[in-house]
UniProtKB/TrEMBL annotation, chain B:
Residues forming the catalytic site: 40, 183
Keywords: Hydrolase, Lipid degradation, Lipid metabolism
Domain PNPLA: 6-196
Motif stretch (DGA/G): 183-185
Pfam families in the cross-refs: Patatin
A GO BP entry: lipid catabolic process
Transmembrane segments: none
Cell membrane found in the keyword field: no
Motif GXSXG per UniProt: ranges: 38-42
Annotated protein name in UniProt: Patatin-like phospholipase family protein
Length: 225, 334
């Protein structure tokens, strides 16, 4: 009996309904197969789609389980709720060929909400950037993944370390994708180092920033006993 | 009239040891207590011990994890924040108290006729303050006693008695009185003196630290570690002092008893003997009779983290078993 080989990403996209199919369908090319192996064809597309759906369901279940497990225990870092950091930064814009590099100053307001307590935040970032003697607006999405809770002092945390990813649009058609490393100290301030690639203008933005959290949450009150 | 008192010291999760001792005592010697005095975790155990709810006690002390009691936060955010009061958020403990100690339970305790005392320290006055359900609480110049009027105050006093200062918030027990109270262990680890003052003739004191503390050969470098170690030794010192005085009183009472016995042998009548000891307003032993003091404590140090605030169910099950074992040995040797 011929073995069934796993589908490639392109094949999944081809047999799967929108959004994959509409975008990738033109790039599908026949794949050479080993003799005896079974190529996915429109005839067995239902089977392939079912595999993909089952995978997605497993991922979704895993994600929700992770949410439930982490939500069940209050987290000292990345607790549930919103944060509202206002970040000021400076750095350089460079394409590595022209000299000198351009000075960059940024100001961004980046509200984020914790979607997986103790692990993941999603949010938006909007602000401005000054370089090449002009001010541009920037805005887009941000994801923060906590990678460490740092050292403990008397059973309490002090800071957390996180990886940050951003995708930003600029008012002069800039398209920035990048991220970096950030440290959040005492739920009050964030220090970050980031690199973004502007793939429209073919530039790199390197910056370091300091953020201050606005609108701090009040400490929870004890219930009436 | 002889009175039996139970005294349970503070110690956070190490209260599981006391639960083990009570489990053994409930099953074997069937001792009934007239007065139960608790400090910190001892205050949480006292009401359930009064009602004989040993199974519920065992469940509470072997299933809860640290986050069911306190939420350890970010140290900078807690110290710099407004109205945070403490390093940890004790909301989970307050919810647990509210859920466990119902109004009906309070009524059952009143019906049982047993007197409960919860030890606290007032932050404003620095005085040891006992909250009690007793109808006729004893007053003293050395401490304050406040009578509990309702179930809500009962729970509030219990919570305040459990809140280790700095780690957990002070609590305003009486709503219209701007006084904040914290864990009585700050000044009194095991309220044995209180039990004596209340006329107890036999006291079972369950302590949650061994007689000889373990040496720590660690070289301390961090100020936080040094602070933690200092607090541990300070607590140990409070515990030693709490027992020193009752032991001294007991020895004095035994000495007076021996003197009286010799006077009787010398041919003095009991009335004459009593007249020698009847010095009005200056008799520290007035109303006190020979005391049987049973001290039951672990043989070795138990894990429980700093301040006993690490709640680890497998470790606490071991503490319950150790408590049962120590109690068994103690009562078999009596």
């Amino acid at each position: 009996m011929p073995a069934i080989r796993p589908l490639s990403l392109a094949e999944i996209a081809y047999f799967h309904p929108w959004p994959y199919r509409r975008k990738v369908v033109t790039s599908i090319k026949p794949r050479s197969t080993n003799s005896g192996s079974l190529q996915a064809t429109p005839n067995n597309s239902a089977c392939a789609a079912a595999n993909v759906d089952s995978m997605k369901i497993k991922w979704l279940i895993s994600f929700f389980l992770l949410c439930i497990i982490t939500k069940a225990r209050a987290q000292s870092e990345f607790p549930k709720g919103w944060i509202f950091p206002l970040e000021m930064g400076q750095g350089v814009v460079t394409n590595f060929h022209s000299d000198p590099d351009l000075f960059l100053a940024t100001l961004a307001f980046s509200p984020q909400v914790t979607v997986v307590p103790g692990r993941l935040r999603l949010g938006l970032s909007g602000g401005g950037a000054f370089y090449n003697k002009r001010i541009y607006g920037t805005g887009g999405g941000r994801v923060s993944l906590m990678i460490s809770k740092g050292p403990k002092v008397m059973e309490s945390t002090v800071l957390n370390a996180q990886l940050v990813g951003e995708f930003l649009f600029g008012t002069k058609d800039q398209r920035l994708v990048g991220g970096g490393f950030a440290t959040e100290i005492g739920h009050m301030a964030t220090i970050s180092m980031k690199a973004h690639r502007d793939y429209v203008w073919n530039n790199w933005w390197f910056s370091g920033s300091l953020g201050i959290h606005l609108f701090k949450k009040k400490a929870p009150k004890l219930p009436e006993l | 009239m002889s009175k039996t008192a139970l005294v349970i010291s503070g110690g956070g999760s190490k209260g599981a040891f006391a639960v083990g001792v009570l489990k053994y005592m409930a099953a074997t010697p069937k001792i009934q207590f007239d007065t139960i005095c608790g400090t910190s975790t001892g205050s949480l155990i006292a009401p359930l011990a009064a009602l004989g709810e040993i199974n519920l006690l065992e469940k509470l002390y072997t299933t809860h994890v640290t986050s069911d009691i306190v939420v350890t936060g970010n140290v900078i955010a807690r110290f710099a924040g407004k109205d945070t009061y403490s390093l940890f958020d004790a909301q989970p403990l307050s919810l647990l108290i509210k859920k466990t100690f119902t109004d009906q339970m309070y009524k059952d305790i009143l019906d049982s006729g047993k007197s409960l005392y919860f030890t606290t320290v007032c932050l404003q006055t620095g005085r040891i303050t006992y909250f009690t359900n007793s109808d006729l609480p004893l007053t003293s110049s050395e401490y304050d006693v406040i009578r509990i009027q309702d179930a809500s105050t009962f729970r509030r006093a219990m919570f305040a008695s459990s809140c280790q200062p700095v780690f957990m918030p002070p609590y305003q027990v009486i709503e219209n009185q701007p006084r904040q109270y914290v864990d009585g262990g700050l000044r009194e680890y095991a309220p044995v003196d209180l039990a004596i003052d209340n006329g107890a003739t036999e006291i079972y004191a369950i302590l949650l630290t061994p007689e000889n503390p373990a040496e720590d050969n660690q070289h301390f470098k961090s100020p936080f570690e040094i602070l933690q170690q200092t607090m541990d030794w300070f607590t140990m010192d409070v515990a030693v002092n709490d027992l020193r005085m009752p032991k001294y009183i007991n020895r004095s009472l035994q000495y007076i008893k021996a003197v009286k016995s010799k006077m009787k042998e010398a041919g003095l009548k009991p009335k004459e003997i009593e007249a020698f000891f009847d010095i009005p307003f200056d008799n520290p032993f007035l109303g006190k009779s020979d005391l049987k003091l049973h001290i039951i404590r672990p043989e070795k140090p138990m894990n429980g983290g700093p301040g006993g605030l690490t709640f680890d169910p497998p470790e606490m099950k071991k503490m319950v078993a150790h408590g049962e074992e120590v109690a068994r040995k103690y009562f078999e040797n009596l």
